[in-house]
Design brief:
alpha/beta; Alpha-Beta Plaits; 2 domains; five-stranded parallel β-sheet; 44% helix
Length: 381
């Protein structure tokens, strides 16, 4: 049977975006080391032992199957990935991220590689203050005092200041807090692929547009003037019904919802395809429906060049899309950007993917996810 050990870590940063550095460290720890069971408040304090920028500091409780030296090696790997450069020179220096093992169960370790409990934790308020948030009664196995007593007796004059920043133990927890993300973009931008992958990776309820089932779509591409109005009304009715059904029922076994469309796209496409009188009638019906539907907390628009869109459309080989031309795609792009100008900036994220291929390249996919992740973090902080 696998043995799970409880350990406590201290994490600090005073270079670059301190908050995002610590949050990225937590995500890596969750994915590579163990389950984060507790996170303290985020504290800000002056650099300790040297002159440098102020730090953000937190403490976490961690359940892991790793033994102490393996844990240390994994931590060093996370630090390195986040830009930490350890110098051979003696003394302290500024750093993107610094992760220290404070306790490992009740073990006492003292060798050339590792000392547990951390030899200086009782001298540092920037460690004791956040540690007291999550483990106030945790006993130091050598000093035989709990965290509260060590904090009360500390002679450290550097008093940490509690901030209102909020950290998440995992990306799943972050997206769960977001609740609903809509991925939008032009025809062939890859919105469905991205929504599918994110729903799988982060346990999201997937809401997909059923565009392929619309009987007017192939006819529209053959004769747009004749079939534009029935197509747009059919899309609107289908989207409204499906969107209302899917977004009104939250799945208890999923962390959040993610869709490959937002119902507002109906108005964008209708404005392009309909005559003026038709559009005015359509707008009245749309406005009534739009008031009733759930709005995404984050609206992501994937911007792709017309050339790449045409390549993607050709690659997926749908017969009814073979007559789509660059002029039509450019009109759609302009329609989206006109809409986005009026959309609340706090909820709207435009990602330029013109130099990316997140379908084939895992690094590009991770870049897109991190962009959405960091935007979500900014909403809550």
């Amino acid at each position: 049977m696998e043995v799970i050990n409880l350990t406590y870590l201290s994490i600090g940063s005073n270079l670059g975006d301190r908050f995002l550095n610590i949050q990225e460290a937590l995500f890596h720890i969750h994915e590579e080391i163990g389950e984060i069971s507790a996170i303290s408040h985020v504290y800000e304090s002056a650099s300790w032992g040297f002159k440098g920028e102020d730090f953000y500091n937190v403490c976490i409780g961690l359940r892991t199957s790793l033994q102490p030296l393996d844990l240390l090696n994994r931590i060093l790997s996370v630090e390195k990935r986040l830009g930490r450069i350890r110098e051979n020179a003696k003394g302290y220096a500024s750093r993107t991220v610094d992760i220290d093992i404070l306790y490992f169960e009740n073990e006492i370790i003292d060798n050339d590689q590792l000392t547990i409990p951390h030899p200086k934790l009782h001298d540092r308020r920037f460690v004791l203050r956040p540690l007291a948030d999550i483990a106030p009664q945790l006993y130091h196995p050598i000093l035989q005092k709990d965290t509260r007593n060590l904090l009360q007796e500390s002679k450290d004059g550097n008093i940490p200041k509690k901030t209102d920043r909020v950290l998440f133990p995992s990306r799943e927890a972050l997206f769960s807090n977001v609740q609903f993300i809509a991925i939008e973009g032009n025809i062939g931008a890859g919105k469905t692929t991205l929504a599918r992958r994110m729903s799988t990776d982060f346990n999201g309820k997937l809401v997909l547009e059923r565009f392929a089932e619309n009987p007017f779509l192939p006819k529209f591409y053959e004769d747009s003037n004749r079939y534009a109005f029935p197509l747009e009304m059919s899309f609107l009715a289908d989207r409204y019904q499906q969107f209302s059904d899917d977004t009104s029922q939250f799945d208890l076994f999923r962390n959040f919802m993610i869709s490959d469309y937002d119902i507002y796209k109906s108005l964008i496409f209708a404005k392009i395809t309909l005559q003026k009188e038709e559009f005015e009638l359509y707008r009245k019906v749309f406005d009534f429906m739009y008031k009733e539907v759930k709005k995404p907390q984050i609206y992501v628009y994937l911007y792709q060049t017309t050339k790449r869109l045409l390549e993607n459309i050709k690659k997926r080989g749908r017969d009814y899309e073979r007559n789509i031309g660059p002029d039509y795609l450019e009109k759609i792009n302009r329609g989206y950007f006109d809409f986005l100008k009026s959309y609340p900036k706090a909820n709207c994220l435009i990602i330029d993917i013109s130099e990316m291929d997140f379908v084939a390249d895992r690094d590009d996919y991770n870049t897109v996810v991190r962009t959405i992740q960091n935007f979500a973090l900014g909403q809550g902080n």
